[in-house]
Amino acid sequence: MHGLKLADQKSLMKQPVTVLVGIGTERAAQLERLGILTVEDLLLHRPRRYEDRRKLVRIGEWSQGQTAMIQGTVTAMGVKWYQHHRKSVFELILEDGSGRLRCRWWNMPYLEQIYRAGQTLVVFGKLKDVKPRIVDHPEVEAAEEGDDVSLHVHRIVPIYPLTEGVSQRWLRALIWRSLSRIEGTVEEPFTGYPPPGWMTRAQALFFLHFPDELANADQARQRLALDELMVLQTEFMRRRRNLARNASARSCGGDNRWIRPFLKRLDFALTAAQTRVLREIRQDLAGPVPMRRLLQGDVGSGKTVVAACAILMTLESGLNAVLMAPTEILAEQHHKKFGKWLDPLGLPVGLWTAGRKDSLPASNVASIDRPERPRLVVGTHALFEESFSLDAIGLVIIDEQHKFGVVQRERLVRKGCYPHLLVMTATPIPRTLALTLYGDLDVSVIDEMPAGRGKVRTFLRTEASLEKVWDFVKNKLQEGRQAYVVCPRLEEDGMGDLKALTSEYAELQKRMAPHRVGFVHGQLPADDKVQVMREFSEGRLKVLLATTVVEVGLDVPNATVLVVLNAERYGLAQLHQLRGRIGRGAHEAYCILVGQSRTDAARARLRAFCETTDGFKIAEIDMKLRGPGEMLGQQQSGMPQFRFADLVEDFSLLKEARAIAARLEMK
Ligand code: ADP
Ligand code: MG
Q: Which residues contact 276 (CB under 8 A, 6 or more apart)?
């Protein structure tokens, strides 16, 4: 009997809240609105703050301007109406034997139904006046039937996020009871864990809700955050070990026969950073363990050439390579660029997108005097489709990874038999985020820009000066340069904006005449998009009006002016991407943000952006301001949701989790 009970207890954490006394379907529905389904969810329901109620102040000793907490009994209350019954003030008098306190709430007459004379209340607020003592809109907690008072006062108490029908006291008491029910049954999530110096998980759960010092609440938060990070990091370690032990890759180190002429023909030399990164990649490619590497480099740092070299090493080794881009336009651009680079070497480059699957060279190009050559296929998401198949894939490169989810990344890799994988990203993601999203990857960083780049200067303008902005743009066109004009994306706003954009387009054409203006947006058919882009990159179109489809990867060095309309609508990381489209040639470049910032914070944000071109700095600012999920955009699936870990603040905790996970994995 006893053993059975214990088994029951062990799984209690995973059981629905209805196993708890007093939780019927109605209560369960309320809790569900708070995201609480199981007992464990309940115990992980994180207080939004704590109140130190160890020191209750006596009403008679409460001084003006002091923020404090008192406990008293309601002796009188009532609503006063004024301004023809349109406005009201609800007043409530509390006494605690040392004095009287008047609490006031404006325009909340229904409070009269909530409180009653004789009731005991805890009131938290700032004393406005001493004669008489008045506090406006204080926070109030009322005693409930059968309250264990020791839970709610004379201690540090948790204040939870609530939902309708759920009161602080009820929830607090429920959690208290549940904590005592699970006592002795809380298991550590890993064996040999936690390391010395950490509280146990059971302690953490308790102190999260009922700390005896605020510091304990923080330690509890850290312990629970560590657990969250550990789940991911141990999974990364496990994947890496599996790969190292069980998967083998074909050697793709190459023999330089094509890289050498390729590099010679380039009109620039690789930067030291590019060379270093290539050495790291080659070492992986030549080895027996499939490479899993993230290549980070700010926009314009020259990741594409590095990709080309890795591809050539693979082709030299007799294996095929796949390069995947996030958009059709980008796939098209890569296809063209790689065609130009690889054609002279007699290496075929295929294209595989939703719109164009025809350019995949047939496998029967081989003939007696021209044996089949390994090839590169450039494509988009379409590469995931069943219809795409390619044997002997030695290397998969994913460009601009932040547009792809982690799951997709793995799916593409499974297509071949353990090819090497190189993921390239221009979003200079902050380190915490990198370790969370790409914790199973090795990281190479191109931390140096090619020399001889024109400076990019950034300006902030209001719509009032748009006239001058267009004059400036036209001047630059006169000098032979090209310009991007970016409008907020259509996808978010529906067709209404397409109309607005279309008239914007007509307007811009008139202004820029005789220079030709092109227009691309998300709803344009793929073929048309590609066509417009081609004309722009060949210089036949001088201005490109675009939604954010130009955000990633486009490379037109002669375009030196970027005008972003409604700039306040974009995140900084996105603006940085956009700005990365210019400053790619030797000419000075100009980024002009046009917008109306409604708040000081919004203005400060854009101003900070004007002052730095360091993508990592910008990413940190952006993540602090908008949070990691928002920063990466909606496309980012695979972004783990944490209750306790904070990707902005917890970098050292994350490093610790990695170290611990590595140690556990060794055992
Ligand atoms: P990103 O890293 O943003 O993908 P790209 O690979 O598109 O950047 O490179 C940006 C531009 O810089 C391209 O026009 C490319 O040819 C050029 N470039 C790359 N490497 C060098 C280099 N070492 N020296 C000069 N120009 C370079
Ligand atoms: Mg790129």
A: 444
Percent of the chain with pLDDT over 90: 47
Q: Which atom of ligand 1 is nearest to the CA of 452?
A: 25
Query: What residue ranges line ligand 1, CB within 6 angstroms?
Result: 268, 270-271, 274, 297, 299-305, 426, 450, 553, 555, 557, 584
Q: Are residues 476 and 607 in the same domain?
A: yes
* CATH code for the domain in which residue 412 is found: 3.40.50.300
Nearest CA to ligand 1 atom 10: 300
Model confidence band, residue 363 (pLDDT cutoffs 50, 70, 90): very low
pTM: 0.70
For residue range 471-503, what is the model confidence (pLDDT) as tens digits?
999 999 999 999 999 987 554 455 556 667 788
Same domain, yes or no, for 529 and 482? yes
The string of pLDDT tens digits covering residues 115-171 is 999 999 989 889 999 889 999 998 888 877 676 767 887 789 999 999 988 989 899
- Can you give the residue range of the structural domain that contains 527? 456-630
Could you tell me if 516 and 382 lie in one domain? no
- Same domain for 492 and 389, yes or no, is no
Alpha carbon of 173 to those of 20, 93, 178, 541: distances in Å?
Answer: 12, 27, 9, 69
- Total of domains in the chain: 3
Residues 355, 359, 364, 369, Cα dihedral to 10°? -170
Give the residue whose CA is nearest to atom 18 of ligand 1: 302
Residue of 276, 453, 555 best suited for mutating to test ligand 1, as the one with most atoms within 8 Å of CB: 555
* Strands 156-159 vs 49-52: parallel, antiparallel or unpaired: antiparallel
What separation in Å is there between the alpha carbon of 306 and the centre of ligand 1? 9
For a pocket test of ligand 1, which of 264, 304, 577 has the largest count of ligand atoms closer than 8 A to its C-beta?
304
Q: How far is CA 603 from CA 345, 600, 609, in A?
A: 51, 5, 10
Pull the structure tokens for residue 308. 């080309």
Q: Of the ligands numbered here, which is closest to the C-alpha atom of 295?
A: 1
Name the residue of 275, 276, 584, 613 to mutate for ligand 1: max ligand atoms within 8 A of Cβ: 584
What does residue 88 show for φ and ψ, rounded to 5 degrees? -150, 160
